[in-house]
Design a protein that fits this description.
This protein is mainly alpha-helical and 145 residues long. It has six helices and three strands, in the order H-H-E-H-H-E-E-H-H. The protein has a single domain (23-143), classed as Arc Repressor Mutant, subunit A (Orthogonal Bundle), CATH 1.10.10.
């Protein structure tokens, strides 16, 4: 019988990132559920709230790493609940996703709930650790394309 001589799974960065991400997403989805949202919908809403004049669906797809057809579904869900609206963009082909006043209120309340929920999975990290983690993950994301 051959003995495995590779790296233990619990030392694998991909495994650890996946598990940590899963813990954060589960905690965040629970908190967002009280506001009728899930992480992907919330992410679209945040992007729409970041710009007064809205964001294109292509920009949302690029930032979130989603197929444009997935973004259409997410925007439809948010529009159906009155949290965003589509407006004509600078050219005839572009549609902007713009947060409504109700969407901005929900985003603010949901954001507070999400941040509070993330305290559980991040409890072992002080502010400095969190800043370093954010900086490292941002560099990994930037390097990935």
């Amino acid at each position: 019988m051959e003995v495995f001589m590779g790296q233990p799974l619990t030392d694998d960065l991909g495994f650890l990132l996946s598990r940590a991400s899963g813990a954060l997403v589960r905690a965040t989805n629970t908190a967002l559920g009280e506001h009728g949202l899930r992480v992907r919908q919330y992410s679209v809403l945040v992007l729409a709230c970041e710009r007064e004049d809205g964001v294109t669906q292509r920009e949302v797809a690029d930032v979130l790493g989603l197929d444009p057809s997935q973004v259409v579904v997410l925007v439809d869900e948010l529009a159906d609940t009155g949290r965003v609206e589509r407006r004509p963009g600078p050219d005839r082909r572009t549609r902007l996703v713009v947060a409504t006043p109700a969407g901005r209120r929900v985003c603010e309340a949901a954001g507070a709930a999400a941040r509070a929920a993330q305290e559980g999975p991040l409890a072992g990290l002080d502010d400095g650790d969190r800043d370093r983690l954010r900086e490292v993950l941002t560099r990994v994301w930037a390097a990935s394309g």
